[in-house]
Amino acid sequence: MISQTEVLENSAPTFLIRPSSGQLSLGLSESWKSIDLLGVFLRRDIKVRYKQTVLGLGWAVLQPLLSVAALTLVFGRVARVPTGGAPYPLFVLCGLAPWQVFARGITRSSNALVENQYLLTSAYVPRLMLPLAAVLGAFVDFGIEFLLLIALMLGYHIWPTPVAVLTIVPFLLLALAVSVGVGLFLSALNVHYRDVNYAVPFFMQLLFFVTPVAYPGNLIPARLRWISQLNPMASVVEGFRGALLHNQRPAMPGLLYSLLGTLGFVLAALIYFRRVERTFADVI
Amino acid sequence: MSNIAVCADSLGKKYPLKKGHRELRDALVSASLRMFAPTSAIPMAGTAPKREHWALRHASFEIRRGEVVALLGPNGVGKTTLLRILARITEPTEGCAEIRGRVAPLLEVGAGFHAQLTGTENIYVHGAILGMKKAEIRRKFDEIVAFAGAGVKTFLGVPIKRWSRGMCVRLAFAVAAHVDADVLLVDELLDVTDAEFRQQCLQRIAHSAVREGRTVIFVSHDLAYARQLCTRELQFAGGQIVKDSASAAISTREAALR
């Protein structure tokens, strides 16, 4: 591991470069020093995203609207999925918004290092910032979808209470933690195995149907419930919907356990990332 | 207080020659070959091709503050590998090095340059990657653009995918030259720019070396150009430094007198 020690004598940092030994440091203090790079990458990603498009930011609005329309047609009109009294478009957007933050975050962050391989081989940057910026970028899109959701709620004369809006915060944090953990792990894995590039969009599609986004969770037969209990996004989606549409409070010990478990997973992903990071420039 | 800017102790970097990772397909093919082929058909160790390559080995040197060092030698002898190790892009396999001060690398055309972004946007991204704060870039922005030249200034609002390579290098170098760094690492990029710009870079490098004590380590295949600039030459061959000699840099001395 490349270590850095501040030498006070001429106020210039001294960098010691040597082969990494077995010891492992999470290097969080060093990452924190270059935290403004996170903002730089985030802004760059946002600027680049809709370059050379006619609709520009319009895509960020159009995509969720068209998805809601298609899902409403299939699951609302054709399959007539029960929604517990809520209008189907509202029901599905409530699930789609948190789902998309996760799906986009994972898809983009798993690609973040490979996409920037030119950068990885030409300058030293804290590599952690690249997948992190990709995950945070997904939360920017979420902001737009959340505004659409509020507008739709007002359209149906449902007033989102401040308590309901506050209740979704821990669920968003859970989605953030899951995205960061999976994103770090997959982005590093992608450096070695480009199979990740092909596997991620495919598995996201499968996971979309396993997660109760387009249908309520109580439709899942009891003997298969354990699958969605293992899927943290299932509790995020259900929690979101419960809070906004039914003013439900989160099931407290359960959410706390999920958060703790996910933080453990993030830590493991970070350790893996740090372990393989030292060979990124050689392998990518 | 020691005056050493960069110190390397038998740095070495080994790369595997076979693919770093096996695809599933390769693993299956070699497994089935082993199953069906008679043992004699598998090539013996003696005839097997080399499996690893030392891109750089036994590199030891001390570079003082304000020295301008040229890395010379044909392609593939370890010059860029050395720069990459010093820039902390890749880890050495053996040995160690110590660098005092901030390092600004210019190894490719603009680290983090994004083809879709305009020149102005790329100045900010590139500067940030090289460790500049936003306020610092804003303050030096006009200076950077002026250094890059009038041609670059005209196209600042155009995505750099429409720029020529020479123009991109100009902009990349202009940003790197304005980083408040103690050690500047430059790969053979300047070789693609025109004579006028190279002369300008030469002056800038010489000036900052003499006046600010900035250390510069650069690669060039233009021997005449390199000799105008450097105070020291490291000659590379086969991944090793074969000659380490002082040289009388014409313009560095000129800058000192000016």
List its salient traits:
heterodimer, A: mainly alpha, disordered N terminus, B: 258 residues, alpha/beta, 9 helices
Which helices and strands occur, and which strands form pairs?
The complex is a heterodimer of chains A (284) and B (258).
Chain A: E1 3-6, E2 13-17, H1 28-33, H2 36-49, H3 58-78, H4 88-115, H5 117-120, H6 129-155, H7 162-192, H8 195-210, H9 225-230, H10 232-246, H11 252-277, H12 280-283
Antiparallel strand pairs in A: 1-2
Chain B: E1 4-16, H1 24-36, E2 52-64, E3 68-72, H2 79-86, E4 94-100, E5 103-106, H3 119-129, H4 134-148, H5 150-154, H6 165-177, E6 183-186, H7 195-212, E7 215-219, H8 223-229, E8 232-237, E9 240-246, H9 250-257
Parallel strand pairs in B: 3-7, 3-8, 5-6, 6-7
Antiparallel strand pairs in B: 1-2, 1-4, 8-9
What features would you describe in this structure?
The complex is a heterodimer of chains A (284) and B (258). Chain A is mainly alpha-helical and 284 residues long. Chain A contains 12 helices and 2 strands, in the order ββαααααααααααα. Chain A has helices spanning 28-33, 36-49, 58-78, 88-115, 117-120, 129-155, 162-192, 195-210, 225-230, 232-246, 252-277, 280-283; strands at 3-6, 13-17. In chain A, helix 4 packs antiparallel against helix 10. Mean pLDDT of chain A is 87; it is low at 1-10. Chain B contains 9 helices and 9 strands. Chain B has helices at 24-36, 79-86, 119-129, 134-148, 150-154, 165-177, 195-212, 223-229, 250-257, and strands at 4-16, 52-64, 68-72, 94-100, 103-106, 183-186, 215-219, 232-237, 240-246. Chain B has a 6-stranded mixed beta sheet with strand order 5-6-7-3-8-9, with helices on both faces. A 3-stranded antiparallel beta sheet of chain B has the order 2-1-4, with helices on one face. Chain B is globular and about 70 Å long. The chains are: A mainly alpha (284), B alpha/beta (258). At the A-B interface, strand 2, helix 2, helix 5 and helix 12 of A face helix 2, strand 4 and helix 3 of B. Strand 2 (13-17) of chain A pairs antiparallel with strand 4 of chain B.
